[in-house]
Amino acid sequence: MEELYCQGCGAKIQTEDENKVGYAPKSALQREEIVCKRCFRLKHYNEVQDVDMTADDFLNMLHDIGQRDGLIVKVVDLFDVHGSFIQGLNNFVGHNPIVLVGNKVDLLPKSTNLNKVKNWMRRVAKDFGLQVKEVFLVSAVDGSGMDETAFELERLREGKDIFVVGSTNVGKSTLINYFIQNSTDEKDVITTSYFPGTTLGFIEIPLDDRSDMIDTPGIINHHQMSHYLSKNDLKIVTPKKEIKPKVFQLNQGQTLFIGGLARFDIEQASEKIGYVCYFSNDLSIHRTKQEKADQLYKEHLGELLSPPTNDTLNNWPELVKETFRITSNNKTDVVFSGLGWITVPKGGVTISAYVPKGVRVIIREAII
Ligand code: GDP
User: Fold this and answer.
1) Integer CA distances (angstroms), 127 to 63, 239, 274, in order
2) How large is the average pLDDT for residues 138-151?
3) Which atom of ligand 1 is nearest to the CA of 168?
4) Which protein residues touch ligand 1 with a CB less than 6 Å away?
5) Which of 198, 209, 328, 357 is buried deepest, with most CB atoms within 10 A?
6) Does 7 score more than 90 pLDDT?
7) Domain ranges within the chain, ordered by starting residue
8) Would the pTM count as exceeding 0.90?
9) Domain 46-219 adopts which CATH fold?
10) Could you tell me the distance, in angstroms and rounded to a whole number, from the CA of residue 170 to the centre of ligand 1?
11) Which ipTM was obtained for this model?
12) Res 194 pLDDT > 60
């Protein structure tokens, strides 16, 4: 096939992988003006879709952004901030200011102190070596925080472009679509001039005559639980509305199974205390004795302990164990990347977290 490039975003056209940059169905190649599916949807439906890219392309993309002048809006998923945080951004941003947008705030319990969450996010950014100008908490689904954020972004960008970056599934497309629907009246929002010198699939949505909001492809974070799950199981695991925390009073020697996806053992504790679980409301949690846990898992994975179900089970990795001594006297979260977290109410306990090989467990100060 002769090499073709999208007239919208400049990406090299390919017909194999719908989730990757530059995808167009074969039938589109007959048209006079060839655009990728993502640009087609933007042009005709005023809607962007997410596509993903390889790690190498991603570094090139960051490099391209570093050469340009604009405000960088980094979107993270509040349900999995560490897991969705893109590393390495700090090396490339140059002098461009960065703001952090925590999306999916609708999932946090209503009683959550959002200022505390914002401060905590600032600290996380700092730990990742990133100096952020502002932190915003929004829901692209129910619209909360969006007007204020749009207003502030307008101020902070000082007439320049906005680059929106994030890993896949943080809700970047939903967020941009919300902005498009609320800020432009135009039917055809896409510009036809594409980024000179890049073929990475940046798409530009005009903000005014001189500047654009630029949607960039997302990078896949392989250490998140979602990458091991079938579409059906992912539906159960992904929370859709406010999480109702579940409290379990546990003694040393007790175990919780989160479906069959993860396991949490109290290895050592001097008293019975309440552990608060924040997972999708559709996910069942099963309590058992640590001494029976291995057997239970062996016999009931995929049934009593599910998900994983059918498709997921075919490639299900073994669970690996990591043990942590919790010392802080404040509340501590044990985060299962992409799945949820359990809050340990105080220090002086030793716990083990089991996750599929490759998924990350993170210990952090409690956010709620
Ligand atoms: P992208 O890959 O970053 O572009 O993410 P998408 O916009 O495709 O969203 C990924 C998933 O998160 C979808 O299932 C969305 O419905 C969901 N999502 C996006 N924004 C929000 C939000 O504000 N709240 C909730 N609860 N879900 C959201």
Assistant:
1) 22, 27, 30
2) 94
3) 2
4) 50, 103-104, 106-107, 139-141, 166, 168-174, 218, 240
5) 198
6) no
7) 46-219, 226-365
8) no
9) Rossmann fold (3.40.50)
10) 6
11) 0.98
12) no
